[in-house]
Amino acid sequence: MKVRNVLLVNAGSDEGIASIANDGTFPALGVVSLATVLRRDHPDVEVIAVDGQITPMDEVEKLIADFEPDVLGVGVLATSYGNALRLAELGKEAGAVTVFGNDQATAMAEQILRHRAAVDYVCAADVGEFSLSALVSALDGERPIESVPELLYRTSGGIAHNRLPEIPPEEIKGSGGALRTMVLDAIPVPDRTLMPDLNWSRYLDNYLNRYGELHAGEDITGVTTMNRARGCARVKSPCHFCGIMDLSLRFSSPEIFWHDVRAAQEQMSASIFYEAFDSMSSSPRWVQAVVEARPDDIGEAKFFVYTQAAETTPRLVELYRRLGVYRVNMGLEAGDTGMLKVLKGPRDSLENNQRACRLFKEAGMLIHGSLVLGGPGETSQSLDNTVRFARWLIDNEMMASLEAQPLFPDFGALTGKWLMNPDLARQVAKERGFEILDGELLDLMPSKYGSTDMVDFDEVSKDWSKIFSHAPWDELIDATHTIRSYADRSGTITGSGRITQATLGSA
Ligand code: B12
Ligand code: SF4
C-alpha cells in the first residue's frame, strides 16, 4: 500500500472517569510531535493530530469517517482504553491500519494484541516519533516491518517485538560524551499548527476557567505542553507508585529548548509552558544551562515544571525564578514521614516536604501537589497525618491545586509488579518492614489481572488496599473526600486520578 493520510488521536478519558486538576487544560503533545516527524519524513502524507480529551467523541468519529485515514494512530492511557478500542474499530471499518501507542499501550501491548483484532500494531517506544515514521515506510514497502523500532505485532509464530533503539543512532548528533545527553535534539520542534486551532482555543479556555484567578492582571494568550528533557534521578530506585516507562535522564540542548518556546509563541501565542520533564529538580545543571542560554528577545514565558521536595534547594528555586517558573508540580504524596520513606525513599520526610513548600511560598511560586493514600502499611494514624498536612498546605496558601486519590498500582510501577508477583511482594515486604495483610488475595492477583487487557482500575486499587494497607478502602475514600472538600472550600482546584467518579462518589 501507499500511505496517503494519517490520523493521530489522543484518546479522551472514558465516560465516568474522575478528572484531575489539569485535565483538558494542557495539550497532548505526543500526537503533535508524532505528526511533525511524519510530515518531515513523508511530506506527501496528509497528517492530522487531534486530542480526544477536548474533542467530543462524535466529532472524532466523524473525522475518521470523513478523512478515511490509511493509518489511524491512537495514544492510549489507562483511563482511555475503552474509547481507544472504539476508535480502533471505527478505523478498521474505514479501512485503516491501526496502531496504538503511549503508556497504557506499552504496558499492556501483548494482552492488547492477543485480545483485539482491531489493533494491528502497538508501538512501545517512549520516544515514538521514529517508530511511527518507520512504520509508515514499512507499510509503503520501503523497509521490512522487522526493522521498525519497538513495534509489536502478530505473526504466525506469535507476537513479535522489535527490540531496536527507538531513536536511530544516525539521528543523534555528535558521538558520545556530553553530546549523548542532548539526545532529545533528535526530536524536531513540534509543529503545533498540525493540531486544529479549535483544540488550542479549548485548552486556553479550560485553563483560564480553572486557573485564571492565578493570573489576575496578566495577559495569558496560549497554553502548551513542551518536553525537552525526560527522566528522573531516581531511575535506579523509583517511587514505588511511579509508572513512567523510562526514567533515564535525557536532554535537549538549551538552544533547542528556546527554539521550541519561540515556535510555540509564534504558532499559537503560547505564554504558559508546561515542561513535562519528569523531574526538573534532578538536573540543576541543565536548568542553569537553559537559563544562561535564554535569548534576550524571547519575551515573557511562564513555566510549570515538575520538582521533587527532596531535591529542592534555595539554589534550585533561584534558578527556577530566573527561568520564569510560576508554578511547580510536586508529588508531595503524604504528610507522614513513615509513609514517605516507604513510598519514596530515605531522603523523604514530612519535614522535607514542608521545607520545600516554604521555599516555594517565599519565592512566590504556587504548587500543584498530589497525595497518594493507602501505600504499604498505611494506618488510620498515618492517613490522619496526611489529611492534617493537606490542611496545613491550604491554610498556608501554598497550593494552586491539590489532588488526592487512593494508590493505583500501575502495572509498570513497583507496586504493580509486586501485585503481579506475590513472591517478590513477600520478599520486599520482609526487606522493607511492611505486612502482607491478605496473602490469599495476593496469590490470586496474577490470574485475575495477568492475561486480560481490560483492567478495572477501581477494582485493582481496592484489591491493593486489602493486601497492603491497614487503613481500609472506605477510610481511603473518606480521607480523599476530606482533603478535596477542604481544598474546594478554600477555592483550591482539586481532582483525583485513576478512579471512576462512581467509586469516588461526590467529593
Ligand atoms: C503532560 C501530561 C498530561 C497533560 C497532557 C495530556 C496528555 N495526554 O499528554 C494533562 C495534565 C492534561 C494530563 C492528563 C492526564 N494524564 Co497525564 N501526563 C502528562 C505527562 C507528565 C507528560 C506527557 C507528555 O506530554 N510527554 C511528552 C510527549 C511528547 O510524549 P508522550 O505523550 O509520552 O508521547 C510519546 C510516546 O508516549 C509515544 N506515543 C504517544 N501516543 C502515541 C500514539 C501512537 C500511535 C504512537 C505510535 C506513539 C505514541 O510517542 C510520543 C512521542 O514521543 C505524563 C508523564 C510522562 N512523563 O509521560 C503523564 C501521564 C501520561 N498521565 C497520566 C494520566 C493517568 C493522566 C490522566 C488519565 C489523569 C486522570 N484523569 O486520571 C489524564 C489523561 C487525559 C487524556 N486522556 O489525555 C499517566 C498515564 C499512565 C497510564 N498508564 O495510563 C502518566 C504516564 C503519568 C503517570 N505516570 O501517572 N497529563
Ligand atoms: S514519581 Fe516523580 S520523583 Fe518519583 S520516580 Fe517517578 S518521576 Fe521520579
Explained architecture:
The chain is α/β, with parallel strands linked by helices and 507 residues long. It has 3 domains: 5-164, Rossmann fold (3-Layer(aba) Sandwich); 173-307, Transcription Regulator spoIIAA, CATH 3.30.750; 328-347 and 361-507, no CATH class. Helices cover 42% and strands 16% of the residues. The protein is built from 20 helices and 16 strands. The strands form 3 sheets. Strands 2-1-3-4-5-6-7 form a 7-stranded mixed beta sheet, with helices on both faces. A 7-stranded parallel beta sheet has the order 8-11-12-13-14-15-16, sandwiched between helices. A two-stranded antiparallel ribbon has the order 9-10. Helix 1 (29-41) packs across helix 6 (129-139), helix 9 (254-268) packs across helix 10 and helix 15 (414-420) packs across helix 16. The longest helix has 17 residues, at 473-489. The protein starts with a strand and ends with a helix. Bound molecules: cobalamin and iron/sulfur cluster (SF4).
Short précis:
The protein starts with a strand and ends with a helix. A hairpin with a 2-residue loop joins strand 6 and strand 7 (158-161).
Provide the fold topology.
Blueprint: E1 5-10, H1 29-41, E2 46-51, H2 57-67, E3 71-75, H3 81-93, E4 97-101, H4 103-107, H5 109-115, E5 121-123, H6 129-139, E6 151-155, E7 158-161, H7 177-180, H8 197-211, E8 223-226, E9 229-230, E10 250-251, H9 254-268, E11 272-275, H10 284-292, E12 302-307, H11 314-323, E13 325-333, H12 337-343, H13 350-362, E14 366-373, H14 380-395, E15 399-406, H15 414-420, H16 422-432, H17 439-449, H18 457-468, H19 473-489, E16 493-495, H20 501-504
Parallel strand pairs: 1-2, 1-3, 3-4, 4-5, 8-11, 11-12, 12-13, 13-14, 14-15, 15-16
Antiparallel strand pairs: 5-6, 6-7, 9-10
The chain binds cobalamin (B12) and iron/sulfur cluster.
